[in-house]
Write a structure and sequence with these properties.
Blueprint: E1 2-9, E2 17-24, E3 32-37, H1 50-61, E4 65-69, H2 88-99, E5 105-114, H3 116-128, E6 133-137
């Protein structure tokens, strides 16, 4: 497995630079890719929480490329958290970063998120229709609308 520290921009008018880690499986030519979305920053969520690292490691061991990144305002990512209102733009930026690479197979793109990240990731998946698999780990049951996606 190889790890690359990467930077890319959210898909918005502001210059919001996002930090991430792209993990690639060894010996797999053009692996499918998965975008990983972390839990809410208010509770300490970041791309470094142990569950996100474990999900990435397991997927990479099974031949997937994984991009985990910090949403705006988290870690070394610029901007300010919007509580999920604009973080869908961050996921779109992650997708566009992956799209620029020729060593990945995006026809099988997946998005996975934990808690807050599952809400943001699902909204991106439904809005753009660009991924074929979605994994929601402990989606938040209170305070997040999973049925009305028009706000993002």
């Amino acid at each position: 497995m190889s790890k690359e520290r990467v930077r890319f921009y959210a898909d918005c008018l502001e210059q919001i630079g996002l930090e991430g880690i792209l993990e690639l499986p060894e010996g797999v030519k053009q692996p499918p890719a998965c975008i990983l979305c972390h839990p809410h920053p208010i509770g300490g969520g970041s791309m470094y929480v142990p569950l996100m690292e474990i999900i990435a490691r397991v997927l990479v061991e099974h031949g997937w490329a994984c991009l985990r990144f910090n949403f705006r305002g988290v870690g070394m990512s610029s901007g300010m958290s919007t509580g999920g209102l604009c973080e869908v733009e961050d996921v779109e930026g992650a997708y566009r970063f992956l799209e620029e690479r020729d060593d990945l197979r995006l026809e099988d793109l997946a998005v996975a998120g934990w808690s807050f990240g599952s809400w943001v990731g699902l909204r991106w998946a439904v809005k753009g229709g660009l991924c074929h698999r979605v994994a929601l780990v402990s989606p938040p049951m209170v305070g997040f609308d999973f049925f009305n996606f028009t706000a993002a």
